Amino acid sequence: MTKTIIEPFKIKMVEPLHLTREEDRREILKKAGYNLFLVKAQNILIDLLTDSGTSAMSSEQWAGMMRGDESYAGASSFYKFEEAIRSITGFRYIIPTHQGRAAERILFGTINVKDKFVLNNTHFDTTRANIEYLGGTAVDLPIPEARIPSDEFPFKGNMDVSLLKSFIQEKGRDKISLVMLTITNNSGGGQPVSLQNVKEVSAVCKSSGIPFFLDACRFAENCYLIKEREPGYSSKTVKEIAQELFSYADGCTMSAKKDGLANIGGFLALNDENLAIQEKNLLILTEGFPTYGGLAGRDLEAIAQGLIEVLDEDYLNYRIASIRYLQNGFEKAGIPTVKPPGGHAVYIDSRAFLPHISPEQFPGQALVCELYVKGGIRAVEVGSLMFGKKQSDGKEILPALDLVRLAIPRRVYTQSHIDYVIEIGEEIAKHKEKTRGLKLIYESPFLRHFTAKLEPLF
Ligand SMILES: *Cc1c(COP(=O)(O)O)cnc(C)c1O
After folding, report:
1. Could you tell me the distance, in angstroms and rounded to a whole number, from the CA of residue 100 to the centre of ligand 1?
2. Number of structural domains found in the chain
3. Given ligand 1 and candidates 49, 52, 104, 118, which is best to mutate, with the most ligand atoms within 8 Å of its CB?
4. What residues contact 355, with CB distance under 8 A and at least 6 apart?
């Protein structure tokens, strides 16, 4: 094998990037209140805000778009979609939705979460919000290693099984409506969950009679990391690993905007017939008929094909290598990151990188601004701005970590784009003491990071 891992595709269609100058970006950032969510995409050079819905589709996916069967009921595109999902997950009932959160809403709308608990390694924010909206409580039970950015444990996405057991014992089985595992654990640094952990969590749920679901958005990346890191799986195919992993669960929710390699879509899949009937009824009410569920036939085709391509091991090898490459580049430049590399993004530990900026002055957001001014790069803060809450006395309750996430869209950027991002990182690291903190001048009552306005401190 050669040392160089190449992008396993060639480019058939191109989209121009918009080059801007540093002076212009300073002005744009100021106008946007130092909040990158408020900057127009055309003013971004390398957009690493999210890997969700930002994948490049293949020629086969585009061909599928043309073949899409737009029949209201029983479209052939639905059966292709159903077959692609069933061959990986083995679940009996496959329910299409317009994206992941719609699958969550339908699941929680039918399993009764009111005054009950849902347990997860770490809930993604839409999952948590859907549970809380219906009167349930979302509880995160990650292993302790997950909270230490420098810890090299290979499966930092795992759930703490002894905490799970004691939680069930303390609250009583009837108080827990569902246990979930998010693979990979997005809010916990994109870290994978081991098959061993999936088996253990599944066994605890079976013995207590609690349903066990997967939040499967990045199942292929998780399974590739199992192949690389977990003893006993190196000679299995990623598809075989995925099939084994899903066999331990009663169902899953999925955003096809991630490992579906599509720009929109999602699904809910499960084995329980009664629940599936109720869910299809709710689907008809809010998404659409069960053979399209809020999607066009062409979208179902793109997802069916995307799910085949995402299990291609040359693709996954390149995908995981590209994350590792960016992470190594940052580490060499003295930029501390969450270790080991995860499946879809690199997370910078900005509190450790910019110790001269106190957490009240948003070190993560300060770095996000610097990446934009110096390089036109858009990243996202996952820290004090996103999770901090102002108390009535005006003081902030701050989260444990201030991270900056650089999520890599699938099959979109080449290695030279990533080299450019590393070079900008090196440049910032050289003069990092010049980076200034920020203060909030406007915030909304919830999810404040989307609309907040800030100002630099002098
Ligand atoms: C993106 C995501 C979701 C929600 O999916 P949408 O398609 O954005 O609605 C749920 N869970 C995880 C882990 C995600 O990353």
Report:
1. 5
2. 2
3. 52
4. none
45 within some domain:
yes
Residue nearest to atom 6 of ligand 1 (CA): 100
Check whether 399 has a pLDDT greater than 90. no
Note the pLDDT of residue 387. 84
For residues 183 and 192, is the Cβ–Cβ distance under 8 A?
yes
Q: From the CA of 129, how far away is ligand 1's center (Å)? A: 12
CA 421 to chain centre: 21
Rounded to the nearest angstrom, the distance between the alpha carbon of 73 and the centre of ligand 1 is 27
349 and 207 housed in the same domain: no
From ligand 1's centre to the CA of 394, what distance in Å? 32
Q: Give 428 Cα–ligand 1 centroid separation in angstroms.
A: 31
Residue 452 sits in a domain whose CATH number is 3.90.1150.10
Q: Within 6 Å (CB) of ligand 1, which residues are found? A: 52, 99-101, 124, 126-127, 182, 186, 215, 217, 255, 257-258, 266
In a shared domain, residues 31 and 108: no
Q: Is residue 32 located within the same domain as residue 113?
A: no
Tokens for 245, please give them. 């992993």
CA 252, distance to chain mean position in Å, is: 15
* Per-chain mean pLDDT for the chain: 95
Residues 158 and 170 in one domain: yes
Segment 44-62, tens digit of pLDDT: 999 999 999 999 999 999 9
Q: What number is the average pLDDT over the span 88-99?
A: 98
Atom of ligand 1 nearest to the CA of 257: 7
**In which domain, by residue range, is 385 found?**
22-51+312-456
Q: If you measure from the C-alpha of residue 218 to the centroid of ligand 1, how many angstroms do you get, rounded to a whole number?
A: 9
Indicate whether 318 belongs to any domain: yes
Tokens standing for residue 271: 């084995």
DSSP secondary structure of 97-151: ESSHHHHHHHHHHHTT-TT-EEEESS--HHHHHHHHHTT-EEEE-B-GGGG-TT-
Length of the chain: 458
Summarize the confidence of residues 303-312 as an average pLDDT. Answer: 98
Residue 458 pLDDT > 90, yes or no? no
Q: Which atom of ligand 1 is nearest to the CA of 184?
A: 13
Confidence class for position 189, pLDDT limits 50, 70, 90: confident
